[in-house]
Backbone:
């Protein structure tokens, strides 16, 4: 079956611009997670959705970051006024229920010039 | 103290040998444990999950969990050069809703 998909695969933007990253989880998966991975670094938790609600936004680095999920499916992560330190690979993962096996999308590589 | 600890490596093993990857975690309430493989420039790929003490085998992979010692390991039998990657240990704790990832162990299988 189809896995987790993310778009775009690559995004190059100028400092100060807003970007939107999209995640389409595996059909039927209720839990959706966003992570960030900087070059050579580990996975940094950003936000978790159960259905359309986000019980835990504690990982969002600043108020420039926001995310939403609609219809219990697609999620978008928005970064406003991008900074160079936002450059990283943004990964989305989904699981049938939280605590179950989590499957990752291919990621979006964001480069802020 | 890091919540999930792994030796960064690299761990080098000859082709055909057994590779042993280890992970310790700090939260005794952790319930679910996962191993991922990540090739350079790619996203993590799930290898195995384990939820109860003991061993779980899947092909050339065996996961071992010891909750009393807060220790989880992954054995790769008959290692192949294609197994060369970074292996991430992840731990889920229901109270936090989070999967906590280790920083990974880099494995090199030498042909």
Residues:
């Amino acid at each position: 079956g189809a896995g987790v998909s993310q778009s775009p695969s690559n995004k190059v933007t100028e400092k100060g611009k807003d970007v939107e990253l999209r995640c389409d989880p595996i059909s039927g998966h209720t839990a959706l997670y966003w992570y960030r991975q900087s070059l050579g670094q580990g996975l940094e938790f950003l936000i978790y959705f159960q259905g359309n609600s986000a019980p835990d936004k504690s990982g969002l680095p600043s108020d420039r970051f926001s995310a939403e999920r609609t219809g219990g499916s697609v999620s978008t992560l928005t970064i406003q006024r991008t900074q160079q330190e936002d450059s990283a690979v943004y990964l989305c993962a989904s699981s049938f229920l939280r605590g179950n096996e989590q499957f990752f999308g291919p990621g979006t590589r964001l480069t802020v010039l | 103290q890091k919540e999930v600890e792994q030796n960064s490596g690299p761990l080098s093993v000859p082709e055909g040998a057994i590779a042993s990857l280890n992970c310790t975690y700090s939260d005794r309430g952790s319930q679910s444990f996962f191993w991922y493989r990540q090739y350079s420039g790619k996203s993590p790929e799930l290898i195995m999950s384990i939820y109860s003490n003991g061993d779980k085998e899947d092909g050339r992979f065996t996961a071992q969990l010891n909750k009393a010692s807060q220790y989880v390991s992954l054995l790769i039998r008959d290692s192949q050069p294609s197994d060369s990657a970074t292996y991430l240990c992840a731990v889920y704790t229901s109270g936090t809703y989070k999967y906590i990832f280790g920083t990974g162990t880099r494995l090199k299988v030498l042909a």
Summary: The radius of gyration of chain A is 13 Å. Chain A has a mean pLDDT of 94. Chain A touches chain B at residues 33, 41-43, 45, 48, 50, 55-56, 89, 91, 98-107 (CB under 8 Å).
